[in-house]
TrEMBL record, chains A, B, C, D:
Top class in the EC scheme: oxidoreductase
EC number, as in UniProt: 1.2.1.11
UniProt gene name: asd
GO molecular function: aspartate-semialdehyde dehydrogenase activity; NAD binding; NADP binding; protein dimerization activity
GO biological process: methionine biosynthetic process; threonine biosynthetic process
Protein name: Aspartate-semialdehyde dehydrogenase
Domain Semialdehyde dehydrogenase NAD-binding span(s) in chain numbering: 4-131
InterPro entries in UniProt: ASADH-related, Asp_semi-ald_DH_pep-lack, NAD(P)-bd_dom_sf, Semialdehyde_DH_NAD-bd, Semialdhyde_DH_dimer_dom
Short name of any one Pfam family annotated for the protein: Semialdhyde_dh
Keywords linked to the UniProt accession: NADP, Oxidoreductase
Bilayer-crossing regions: none
Length: 344, 344, 344, 344
C-alpha cells in the first residue's frame, strides 16, 4: 500500500525536483502540493513556472495547489516533504508537527537544534531516535527531520569513510553550482566570466552541520564530532553539481590507497532512492567533474577522486548533485528511511 | 636612454601580452621579436594570430620576426623576455646565456634550479644576487632570472605579508581561468557548465615555488621556507584572473584585522610597472572576484578579502590577473628590477 | 564654460554607465543625481550598488542623491539624461519638460510618438527640429529627445549607409548580450548553456524604430521609411555587445565591395563622444565578435563584417556595445548634439 | 535476427554517439569498430577518450578496434555507419562501396554528388532509389547514403511542412552549439563571453543541401528545389542544440496558425529511432531553447516556436540536437530506413 505524501512549497526549484523524483516512486504517492496564498486554488501547471527538463507529470499538472497550512492537507497524507524558504519554514513547520505530521525538511532552519535529527541515511540513521526527545520536549505527535545543506552533504560521506582513522582537521574549499542559490539566486551578469567567493551563510553551515552528522548520539543528545572544520565557499558558472577540495588530517596515518578503499567500501543502505554504492572513487586524476559526474547513480551517488598524501594528511576532491543528493533527493531518502524505521 | 629589449616566443599568448605591456613603456624599447623557424622572415602581423583586445602597435606589426637564436638578435639588445614553451626554453635559453644575454623568463623550466633566481621584485629582490653564483657555476656572462607560476604568484604576496607571524602551514585551493592554459589549452566542450580539478603539474609548482620565494638566501644558496604547503588546483569557466582560497596557520596568533593590516602595509617597489600598493584588501565579503578585480593596478595588483579566523589560523581569498601579474607582467617587472639593480 | 547636467535614475545599470562616461567629460559637469524616494538623501556611494568595473569617481561618490522631481534639481542644471524604467519615465518625464528641462532619454516610452525626435547624431540630426513641433503641441519650454533601443542602433548605421541603393527589405536576427536586460534581467539558470529566442518587445522596437530613424522629416512630421523590416531577437550567454545578422534587399544592385565602401565612408560627426569613424568594416570573415570588438572607439563605434551577396541582395553582420553605443553613450551623444545645435 | 553493423571512425565524438545510440538497439548489433592505424589493435576502452556522459557499454569497451579498411570488417557485417573526417571519408568510403558494403555516412563529402542520396527518412525517403543510379554509374554492389549537415537538418523538416504553400525564399540565421565543431573545435578562450559569426563552410551547406533534400527525384536525378536560401551561421557558448531563426516566404498566403498546424501534422515514420511526432510546436513564445528542448524525443525530435507573420511571410524559430538528430542519430535513422526498404 503506497504511503501518501505531500510537498510543502511545491512550486519552487526544489519543489519541482521533488515532483520529478516522486514520479513513478515505488512506495510514495503524491497527494498534496502546497504553495503561497497567491497560488492556492490554481492547478499546479498554472501555479508553477516549470523549469525542470523533463515534462510535468500529467497527474501532477492537474492537481490543485493548496495553501501551506495543516488544514489544507488531506487526512490520509502521512508524510510531508518541505522545501519552503527557511524563514517561512521556521513559522509553519511547527504547526504541521503539532497537527501530527512527519516532516522531512530540506529547509535550513532548526538543522542545529538540539532535538532535531539531522540525518543522511547512510551516515547516521540512528540519529532518527532523537525524534523521541523532540516529542517529549515539544509535546507533539509529529516529527521533524532535516537533511544537511548541499555543500555539507557533498563532503560528509567521504569524511565518514575516513573517520575510522580519527579525523582531526578538515579544510574544504567549494566550487558550487548556481542552482544552489535557487532559480533566480545568481544573475547572469554576476557569474559569466566570473566566480564569487564567500557564499553567505554557507561556510558556517559546513563547519557546524558536518560535526553534528558525524557526532555521537547517546539517546539523549548529539555530541558534536571534535574535528576542526574550516570552509571557503565559492560560486562558479556551473549549473548543477558542487565540486569540493578537501584537505583532511587524521590521528592515524592513512595512505591515499587506504583512503580510497575506505570510501569505496563505505556501506550504503537499501532504500528505493539510494545508489548501489555510496561513493564512487575515480582512479584517474582530473575527476570528478560537475557536468560529467553529477548524474551518477541518478544524482544520488557521491564521487571522489584525486586522492594524494600531503605533509600533514590527505587531499582529495568530491562531488555531488546539489539539487538531487544535496536537496530534494536528500529529503526523499530521509522520508524513505522514516518509513523503513516505522516512524511513518 | 632606452634599454633595447627582445621577446623570445613573441607570437604566442604571453608574447602578445609582452608586446601590449611594452607599448609606450617608459624605459624599454622593443627591438627584436623571435618565433619558430616557420614564422621567421614574416612581419609580426603575418606571423602572429593576434588575440589581445587592443590592436597590434603599428611599429611592432611591421617588425620582421627572427628565429629564436642568439645570432638573430641585434647587438644593441641588452635584455630578453622569454615566453617560450618550457621544453623549447630548456633547450635554447642556455645558448642565450652563453652569448651573454640577460634573460627574464616566464618559462617554467629551471625555476627550482639551485643557481637560478626565482623572484618577485616586491618579495625577494635580494635573490637576484644568485646570478653571481649562476655565473660562477656555468661560466657564462649572461643571466637567467625566472618568475613563478601564475597560481603561485597570486598567493605568495599575501603569505609574505603574514610571514612576520611565523607561517607554518598553508592549504590553498585555486579557481583558475582558462587563459592560464594558453589560447587553445582548454576546449569549450571541456569547461562550459563544468570545472576540472587537479590541473596537471600546477599543484607541485605552488607547493615548491612558494617555499623558494619565501626562502632565505645566504649569498650562496636559497634555503626553502619551512612551511608546509598543500595545493588543489581547479580550472573554471573564467577567462582571466585566478581566485584562490587560502587556509594559513602561523606560530603567533594573528587576528583577521592584523592580517589585513599586514597585507595593506606590505611595501611595494618603485618600478615603472609596479602598482602603487602591492595588495588591495577588501573590507566587504564577496570580493575579490575575477572579472571585477583582475584589472586593478593595470593587472599588476594583488587583491585579497574575506579574512576570517578559523580554529587553527586564518582563511582568506586572493586574486591576481594570471596573464599580466601572473606571466608577462611578472617577467617585465623582473626586467625592470634587473635594470634598476644594474644587472643590465 | 561647462554645461551642468543631471542624471534621472542614476543608480541603475545605465545610470552607472552615464556616470562612467561623464567622468572627465570635456563640456558636461555632473551636478545632480536622482533616484527613487528610498535612496534620496543618501550619498551616491551608499545608494548605488556599483557594478561597473572602474571605481566610482570620488566627487560622484559623495554627491547626495535627490528624488526624481523637478523641484530637486539645482537651477543651474540645463540638461538631463534619463535612464528611468520606461513606466516611471512615462510618468515623470512630462513634469521635467513642463519645468523647462531638456531631457535626453534612453527610456523606451514615447520613442514612436509623433512629436518626439528619435535620433542618432550621425544618422538623422535634422529630426531634432521636431522639438519645435513638440513645444507647439505641448505648450512646454523643455524638450524631450529619445535614442533608439540597443538592438536597433546596432543595425541602423549600416542600413543608413546602404540606403543610397534603395533599401526595400530587411531581415535581421540578433544575438544579444545579457546586460541588455539590466543587471538582474537574466538569471544564470536561464542562460548558461542556453539561448532564449524572442526577447519580449524587442522585435517590434527594431521593426518600427529603424523606419523612423531612416524616415523623412518635412518640418512637421516624420514619414517612416518604406522598407519592410522583420526581426528575430535572441538572448545568448554574452555579457556585452549585440551581434546581428542582416539580410538586406535593395532596389539597385550592390556588390559586397560597394556595400563595404558605403559603410566605411559613411560620415561621422564631430562631437566629444563620437568615434573617428562611425562604422569599422572587417575584411576578414569571422568578425565582428562581441568580446573582441565591443570596445572599439571606446564602445561608440559600430562594427560590420562578413559582407556577401545572396540571390536577392546582401547578407552581413554588425555589432555594437549595447550599454555604451546602445544606451548611455547614445543619450550622451544626443545631449552633445543638443548643445551643439543650440537647444541647450 | 539482428543486423550486424560497424562504425567507421568509432573513437571520435560522433563515433561515441553512435555507440551510445546503438546500445540496446532493437535490430542492430555492433560488430566492428574502426579507427586510425595508431588505435588498431587496442581495446575500444583504451583507444577512445570517452566523453559522453553515460558509461561505455561493457561489451563495446572490450571490443578490439580495427583499421578502417574493408579487409578488417567481419564478413557478416552488413551495414556501416561512417563518422570519418570528410577528408578521410572521401578516400576510404569508395573502397567500402567497392567491397559491397552499404554505408550510411555522416561525413560531409559527396553530399551534393549527383548519384548520392542525401536523405532524411521523414522528408525524402524516395531519394534512396538514387542508389540504383549510383550502382550503375560506379559499377559497385555497395551503396553510399548521406545525411545532411546538423544546421541543415534542424531547419528542413519545418520547411518541408511549409512547402505545400510554395516556398520561394528562406533566410536563416543560426545559433549553433560548440559540439558541432567537434570536441576540440572551439577553444574556451574563443567562445566564453563571445559569439563567432560566419562558421566556415556551414552557410554554403545550408544553402545547397536544403534544396537537394526538398528537391524532386525523377528516377534518374534530383532536381533541386527552386527556393532561394541565404544563411548566416553563428557559434555561441552552448554545448548542444542548434537554434535557428527562419524567415520564410511562400507563394500562397499562410498564417502562423496554418503554419503551426502544418508542422504539427507533418507525418513521421515508423522506425526504431524516429520520434512519435517529427515536429513539436510550442504555443508559448520564448521556446524552443537549446538546453530545455534539445532532449525532446531522445534528441530526435525537431522543435519549433515563435511563429509570426511578417510583411512578406513568416518568421519562426526551430531547434534540434545537433549531435543526435544532427549527426549520429541521422545516420542511424537512415540505416534503419535502408533495412526497412530492403537495401540491406
Amino acid at each position: 500500500m503506497p504511503v501518501r505524501v505531500g510537498i510543502l512549497g511545491a512550486t519552487g526549484a526544489v519543489g519541482q525536483r521533488f515532483i520529478q523524483l516522486l514520479d513513478d516512486h515505488p512506495t510514495f504517492e503524491l497527494a498534496a502540493v502546497t504553495a503561497s496564498e497567491s497560488s492556492a486554488g490554481k492547478t499546479y501547471r498554472d501555479a508553477a513556472k516549470w523549469r525542470v527538463n523533463t515534462p510535468i507529470p500529467d497527474d501532477v499538472a492537474s492537481m490543485t495547489v493548496v495553501e501551506t497550512d495543516p488544514s489544507s492537507i488531506p487526512d490520509d497524507v502521512d508524510l510531508l516533504f518541505s522545501s519552503l524558504p527557511s524563514g517561512v519554514a521556521a513559522e509553519v513547520e511547527p504547526a504541521f508537527l503539532e497537527a501530527g505530521y512527519v516532516v522531512s525538511s530540506n529547509s535550513s532552519n532548526d538543522r542545529m537544534a538540539d532535538d532535531v535529527p539531522l540525518t543522511i541515511p547512510e551516515i547516521n540513521p540512528g540519529h532518527l531516535d532523537l525524534i523521541e526527545v523532540q516529542r517529549d520536549a515539544r509535546g507533539w505527535d509529529g516529527a521533524l527531520v532535516k537533511n544537511p545543506n548541499c555543500s555539507t552533504i557533498t563532503m560528509v560521506p567521504t569524511l565518514a569513510a575516513l573517520d575510522q582513522f580519527g579525523l582531526e582537521s578538515v579544510r574544504v574549499s567549494t566550487l558550487q553550482a548556481v542552482s544552489g542559490a535557487g532559480y533566480s539566486g545568481v544573475t547572469s551578469m554576476e557569474i559569466i566570466d566570473n566566480a564569487i567567493p564567500h557564499i553567505g551563510g554557507e561556510e558556517a553551515k559546513m563547519e557546524t552541520e558536518s560535526r553534528k552528522l558525524l557526532g555521537t548520539f547517546d539517546g539523549t543528545e548529539v555530541d558534536l564530532h571534535g574535528m576542526e572544520v574550516a570552509a571557503s565557499c565559492n560560486r562558479i558558472p556551473t549549473l548543477d553539481g558542487h565540486l569540493e577540495n578537501v584537505f583532511a588530517e587524521t590521528a592515524a596515518d592513512v595512505s591515499p590507497e587506504e583512503a580510497a578503499a575506505a570510501m569505496r567500501e563505505y556501506p550504503g543502505v537499501d532504500l528505493p532512492s539510494s545508489p548501489d554504492q555510496l561513493i564512487h572513487v575515480f582512479e584517474a586524476f582530473g575527476r570528478p567533474q560537475p557536468r560529467m559526474d553529477r548524474g551518477r547513480g541518478d544524482g544520488m551517488q557521491i564521487s571522489a577522486g584525486g586522492l594524494q598524501a600531503t605533509d600533514a594528511g590527505l587531499k582529495y576532491n568530491c562531488l555531488a548533485h546539489n539539487t538531487i543528493r544535496g536537496a530534494a533527493g536528500a529529503s526523499l531518502l530521509n522520508g524513505e528511511l522514516l518509513v523503513e524505521e516505522g516512524w511513518v
